[in-house]
Amino acid sequence: MENHEQNSQTQSSTSGNLSTLIITVNEARGLVSKNSTRIDAYAALTLGPQTLRSRVAMNTNDPAWMDTLIFQGRLSDIYHSVLSVAVYNKLQTDEPLGVVEIALKKLSIGREVDCWFDLSPPKNEVSGAVTSDTLQVGTVRLTMTLNGPLRKEVQTVCKAFNTVTTCVDKTLSVIFHMGGTSRPYVMNRYTLTAALPFSLLAATLFPAILCVATVGLPLLFPFLLLFVVGTLMIGALLGTVGLLSLPGRTMCEAVLKPVAQNLTDTSVGQQLLFETGPRPSPLALIGALAPTDPSVKLAVSVAIDIIGSSSYAIPFLGESADIVWAPIQAALLYNMYRRSAPWAAYVGFAEELLPFTDILPTATIAWLHENAPGLYDEIKRRIPARNNMQGTN
């Protein structure tokens, strides 16, 4: 009763700045007591200075508690703590039956985890020796959810994104409504009849305009450049609006959701997004984003080489941009190929810094070094199979 009152007080004192670790102590199986044939079991959960207890399940080796216990504190403290779960026999003056320790940094913040844990024999409080001869004294099932606040900069980005998407949705709604309302007045037989002479005139004059533009290209080049730049900017703006619209967001979510989920499941991703303590280093972040699938690694490697070689598009100025790209490329190559081709990071860094060596496809060469033997074996395996099929036919 005292424990449930403590839990209710904890829930009522929840504030937005605190994180919560919600644990449902579901059940235990196969509990063993050295001193008694009867077990009145309860679980005690300890996190730092806080200890919460479940109710007592009477006279059973397989207790089912289904009690929900809530710890509160700063996320940076909870995330780096170890949760101790101990099961006791109340009948024998709190005889310890088993214990398990869980590193909470292995949890994914905001995601529920339901798992069985093996209990280890308890240790003697005085000597530290194990009090049971068996290596396993039962199992306990816990359902855990760790909730915590996002970093302030992440919250700011999320709020700004929501504001922009709301504005885009309202603007597009007004535009579509106006377009639907004015369409009968714009697209009708009278306007089409009036537009027909202008269309014929433009088609007739197009060759002449093309000849004049070709002859006067040196004079028209600045205007042509402005037109191309303006077209690209308008295209980028329309593309951005399209991605921010509801269909665009749905498409992006389908593509990016697995990537984002894989990132948030890693400790680096959680340190980046949540208030778990110090932020991850750029090298650790690149390591978390580095792909492992061979097909994805090939695509990323080709993209790295294309970006590195793109400095040739702007003579002299492009080489100065390599100073920024060189460490990024080296970090990517180190995390992607540190086991199969550790030299790739150093070669990639050097060829980006040295002049006129960007043409070397270091990332693609590293991918071939890692995957060529497997590709060769696969080709050899498939060629005899195809020959056997042709011989059979």
What does the model show?
There is one protein chain. The chain is built from twelve helices and eight strands. By secondary structure, it is α+β, with helices and mostly antiparallel strands. Among the domains are: 148 residues, Sandwich (Immunoglobulin-like), CATH 2.60.40.150; 100 residues. A four-stranded antiparallel sheet has the order 4-1-8-7. It has a four-stranded antiparallel sheet with strand order 3-2-5-6. Helix 9 runs antiparallel to helix 10, helix 9 packs across helix 12 and helix 10 packs antiparallel against helix 11. The termini are far apart. The N terminus is likely disordered.
Estimated helix fraction: 55-70%
Biggest sheet layout:
4 strands, antiparallel
Order of helices and strands: HEEEEHEEEEHHHHHHHHHH
The CATH architecture term of the domain at 2-149 is Sandwich
pLDDT under 50 segments (min length 5)? 1-15
* Mean of all residue-level pLDDT scores: 83
CATH superfamily of the domain at 2-149: C2 domain
The helix tally amounts to: 12
CATH topology of the domain at 2-149: Immunoglobulin-like
Radius of gyration: 33 Å
Shape: elongated
Structural class: alpha+beta
CATH class of the domain at 2-149: Mainly Beta
Total number of beta strands:
8
